[in-house]
Amino acid sequence: MSKQLQINRSNIPPHGTPVHLVFEEPDKEILDNGLEVFLINAGTENVLRIDIVINAGSVFQEKKLTAASVGKLLKEGTRGYDSSEIATLIDYYGAYLDVSVTKDTSTITLYLLSKHLKYLIPVIGHMLMEATFPEEELRIHVDRQRQEYLINSEKVRYKAMLEFNKLVFGEGSAYGQVLELADFDMIERNDLAHFYKRHYQPSNAYLVVSGNINDEIVGLLNQHIGKTWQPGNSFEYQVPNKGMVGIRKKFIEKPDAMQSAIRIGRPIFSKKHPDYNKFLLLNTILGGYFGSRLMSNLREDKGFTYGVHSFVTNYKHAGFFSVSTEVKADSTEMALKEIMFELNRLQTEKVGKDELSRVKNYIYGTFLRTFDGPFALAERFKSAKNMGEGFLFYKKSLNEILKVTPEELLETAGSYFSPEEMITLVVGKVNNS
Question: What is the pTM of this model?
């Protein structure tokens, strides 16, 4: 198997010139149960990363906290291993096991030495098939999450994050749901068992192996996952409700706040949209790196904040753009005006060639760093796979970004930075009094 990406770092490419990267898609195997396995053979050390990606994120839950609780309790006991046995095995073999749950997916990730796979893959198999979700562990988990929620709820930044998500997608939608205090009393073990049985199926998942891959790996995966993790009831993937914007301006007063959290943004299109790469470049200029316009204005020039950033957040079926910052409470109104000033400037003035060249070079460098090493390649591949693409998607995207002109940026800003389309949220002090 050959390496997935070859980069010649001896020459720095001219700014704005499409790069010529050699990509190879991962080798693909199919286990006996139909589970797709993608093999990224790269690196020289005898280490592996196993990622099992399941469409079991929070957008699919019927009751809040369900998806995250299932993910958390996968390591807390199965019919074959109790929680202490799982922890002891992982520790003894010097491995690392994590389960992360996002809005779209639940991912079981295992880092380990290649020679120890035969000892640890049975544990993963049991987690996929025979998790027990002990009642006591669920109560401990919920109580801990409740305490974290109560502490975080006093922070303007956390409150703004929840409220902005609700404004962008709508409170009743799959992507717009946010936790409320009452939700912690509603979750039950049966909710976890039902969600697990329905969504943790091989037909609803795929597996990525990255690192120094040998010929035994697929056989071990098939023995402990392909032959034993059998499909349950008939399963059909359902696209979650994306929701829609309701209120466009909201102010949540916290009279004693020393800072105000500001969020300004809007829903956006998917990565496959023809304007996505131009928008991504525009976002970087605005607030996507330390030398951005927002940082220069609000931090360096005005001293309103320690940091201000703009983001493009992508989910599988939805996404949003946002400007995010926390400013001194008495600077709230002035900070809002300066953010809108920078958004307006991109709609009315062409980006200069020097600035454009500098930002393109920054994106190019960031791009290369995110493909450096087998585990980084795995992250990139998962992101592409979740939208039905492969590595070539990134080559196409980078080449498009490096070709964008000032005129195209001006047109893109005019289309998507209109004040009428923006959602504005402030949590803290909303005036100068």
Answer: 0.89
